[in-house]
Amino acid sequence: MFDQVGLEGIARAAYDADAMSIGPPYSAVFDKVFVGLSLPARTRADAAWGPTSGERYEGRLMLFGFGGVGAVRVDALWRGAIVASAASPLAHIDRVLTSWPDPGGIDDEIVRSLGSLPGDPARLEAERRARLLARLRAGFRQPDALTDAVLDGWLASIGARSVGDLVERFANQLLGGTLQVGFSAGATTTAPRALPLSAAILVRDQPIHVADLLAQSKAVADQLEDLGVERAQGGDSARAQPVVVVWMVPEQVFDDAGWPGGESATTDVARRALRRQAAGRWLAREGIGLVTTAAVPG
Description:
The chain is α/β, with parallel strands linked by helices. The protein has two domains: 4-90 and 194-293, no CATH class; 99-183, no CATH class. It has eight helices and nine strands. The longest helix has 18 residues, at 268-285.
């Protein structure tokens, strides 16, 4: 029922796929499917009552079916999982180097180099700063990563107003440690991983009113989350949404040039595919998976 592009979009709507290193191939597991649901419009009413002076009371009511908005049709509720391929790098730590440069002795180093400490405060600060940076960067594999901005942030975090303040107040008391960790170039293995999922499926025909369907999708996801239909997740999962919404729409929807993404294609079929992919990426960030159905001849 769902192709690989659609399943990837659903997986990305439900989970942070990049953080979890998951990718194709994908497959769907349908533990339970409830067909034909109707969720009434929900309105929240906040109220407060009581005497003008004295104890007051507050209350909140959830009202269903009010507000002149009809119920939202949910064509199916899918509780199951998407099985994805999860990558597991097997690299090992093969090098650890530490360094603990001490800001103490910087002034002595300046005297040995210049004969005395500069009388100009700005030049003295510049000399101290250059030598502290050199000591700290000596412990870096990538010395340029320690910029002036990074140094300023570190000084502020320890309560030092400047390098001079550090030298005068914290010399021989505070060490700025650096740590290098090296990893071996290990192989990466992949294995199937089931990602528990609860999804409301909305089947819609043309024309698609995107703003209205987005609002309905948010309302459906909120109500289903309140009803506790989400699946339990593993402790090492990076879930993006507890309940996702799946749009099932005709693929002809993306023949409309108003959808972005198809500008670089040279055929109608390619433009349709690129527009669908662009829409799928955008909708996944909103907790919505996009699935298209094949065009019906005639």
